[in-house]
Design brief:
single chain, alpha+beta, Peptide Deformylase, five-stranded antiparallel beta sheet, 2 helices, globular, EC 3.5.1.88, Peptide deformylase, Peptide_deformylase_sf, metal-binding
Length: about 160
């Protein structure tokens, strides 16, 4: 078991774009195994490679007893929109409401280098969108919506 150290907000690698994986080899499989170990050790739902200092387009998610590896993932369709609280292993102690699509269609390669196309919804869709943002050098804190600004303004002289 190899648990990798997590990069946290302020580390420039989190703002860097990950490169496409050309081919899946033993080194790639070792990275994936270490990412899975790191994800489970930190009790996360998803992990992008740049969160452990590796600028490759690899995402590992673990939701509802299913572990999914996405290599070079690309969202090709989005449906719906929902605002929910998010947190991040790389931004400890902070949470915020982020709007995300409720359903997505993703094209990616798996560990065996097979091209996949799969629909994800609800929590899995949210986690995948969050992790793909990491691969682009984006953090959830960039997308947090201040819902207090959406509150209706008070009428002059009104009392709460």
């Amino acid at each position: 078991m190899a648990v990798l150290p997590l990069k946290t907000i302020g580390d420039p690698i989190l703002r860097s774009k990950a490169k496409e994986v050309e081919n899946v080899n033993e080194r790639t499989r070792e990275i994936i195994k270490n990412m899975k170990d790191t994800l489970h050790e930190n009790e996360g739902l998803g992990l992008a490679a740049n969160q452990v200092g590796i600028l490759q387009q690899i995402v590992v998610i673990s939701i509802e007893d299913e572990e999914i590896v996405l290599i070079n993932p690309e969202i090709v369709e989005k449906e719906g929109r929902k605002l929910m609280e998010e947190g991040c292993l790389s931004v400890p102690g902070r949470q915020g409401a982020v709007p995300r699509a409720e359903e997505i269609m993703v094209e990616y390669r798996n560990e065996e280098e097979n091209q996949q196309r799969r629909k994800f919804s609800d929590l899995a869709a949210r986690v995948i969108q969050h992790e793909i943002d990491h691969l682009k050098g984006e953090l959830f804190v960039d997308k947090v919506v201040d819902i207090s600004s959406a509150a209706p303004e008070k009428e002059p002289g009104s009392v709460e």
